[in-house]
């Protein structure tokens, strides 16, 4: 990775309008930019959740999805997903499915730092055990998606706001009965 990581800035319609150093983008007046989230599922059907490292600038120490990241300028999003999977949780992922192509959110953490992203959401598979990067992940767990959904509903404050919002829209976190009713 380069010393300075850049993110892709977007207008309100999702069109690229430039780039900026990642460190300069996440503040109290965060400009809309491109990101992605990924939920990793193992052979047992469990989803990987990670607890953000305590020194992270935004939402330190909260539980979140498997990993997130930002595609660099001119980097295909799928390439960025694979890059961050390896860097953040030490995993090779496969069978990437674009589950929420238009996911977008804006959230403010307790310190006033804002996340403001258009953030396609992927679901991926792995047969391996994570080897988390301690600069990114404090701890991890494999959990049943329906149990996680119940926890997200009962204690949303313990999780990243993007995980809470994504889980409300992803079929991964629905009971079979809810999926049948929606069909």
TrEMBL record:
Residues 31-165 form the Nudix hydrolase domain. Its EC number is 5.3.3.2. Its cofactor is Mn(2+); Mg(2+). Belongs to the IPP isomerase type 1 family. Pathway: Isoprenoid biosynthesis; dimethylallyl diphosphate biosynthesis; dimethylallyl diphosphate from isopentenyl diphosphate: step 1/1. It catalyses: isopentenyl diphosphate = dimethylallyl diphosphate. It is found in: Cytoplasm. GO terms for molecular function: isopentenyl-diphosphate delta-isomerase activity. Keywords: Cytoplasm, Isomerase, Isoprene biosynthesis, Magnesium, Manganese, Metal-binding. This is Isopentenyl-diphosphate Delta-isomerase. The keyword Cytoplasm applies. The gene is idi.
């Amino acid at each position: 990775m380069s010393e300075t990581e850049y993110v892709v800035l977007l207008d309100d319609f999702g069109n690229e309008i430039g780039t900026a150093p990642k460190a300069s983008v996440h503040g109290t007046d965060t400009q809309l930019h491109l990101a992605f989230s990924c939920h990793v599922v193992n052979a047992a059907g469990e989803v990987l959740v990670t607890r953000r490292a305590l020194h992270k600038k935004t939402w330190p120490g909260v539980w979140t999805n498997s990993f997130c990241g930002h595609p660099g300028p001119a980097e295909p999003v799928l390439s960025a997903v694979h890059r961050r999977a390896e860097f953040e949780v030490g995993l090779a992922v496969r069978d990437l499915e674009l589950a929420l192509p238009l996911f977008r959110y804006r959230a403010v953490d307790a310190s006033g730092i804002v996340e403001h992203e258009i953030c396609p959401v992927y679901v991926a598979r792995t047969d391996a055990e994570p080897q988390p990067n301690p600069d990114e992940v404090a701890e991890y767990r494999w959990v049943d998606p329906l149990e996680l959904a119940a926890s997200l509903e009962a204690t949303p404050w313990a999780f990243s706001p993007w995980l809470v919002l994504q889980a409300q829209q992803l079929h991964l976190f629905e009971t079979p009965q809810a999926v049948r009713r929606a069909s």
